[in-house]
User: What shape does this take?
Amino acid sequence: MKQRIITGVIAAVLFIGITLYGSWPFSLLILLLAGIGMYELLRMKRMEQTFIGLVGYLLTILIALPEQWMKVIDPFTKTDAIILAVLLLLVVTVVHKNKTEYNDISFVLFSSLYVGFGFFYLVETRILENGVQLLFFVLFMIWATDSGAYFVGKSMGKRKLWPIISPNKTIEGAVGGIFFSILVAVIYYAASFVDLSLLPILIISVLVGVFGQIGDLAESAFKRIYDVKDSGSLLPGHGGILDRLDSALFVFPLLHVLHLFG
Assistant: This one.
């Protein structure tokens, strides 16, 4: 527990400090985390040192690049990168005479999209006019959801939510997590910490409460399939980057796609 607390405090101070500063240090941090997140997924499948794994790293970083940085390689786009990656990986199947299977290629492409766009929308949120407030608004709701689900599930949980994927999660805990997400949103609204009207705030809080937990379950499913306890060991007592940011990688793209920050 002591190690978990120390790691959490140090990581939080560094992340909050760099997030508040913003600019290129924040973008570089996000790209670094994206690369580590992709490594953690590839390591689960024991593909972290393969050629198609290398393609996955490069594609993840390109997808996660901030839009203003993409202008440096204009007219090359993220779509171009995805198409080239698909074609290159198909070439690999021919060169390797089917030793590289299509499920390996699918895993690399899917993982690159999942991790790359997840981290990309963290940067896209930060660069908004009120990006700092929105970023921490969503993160606080995610943390509240996680904590609420844990404590409510621990004290009141009886009915299992999805035992095959995560045997300790309960329906009562999931409802508690959503409640705590809404509670944080109401506090933000009452204190005028974020420049949004009440209805969008409530919609966002419910989406964060529901899909933050789905993001957590999705990461748990990865770990169940590949029989690993944690996605990594970078954060002693906390696991890996994906263990800490699985909900955020699901929630931030969703909120942007639904244009709830606009």
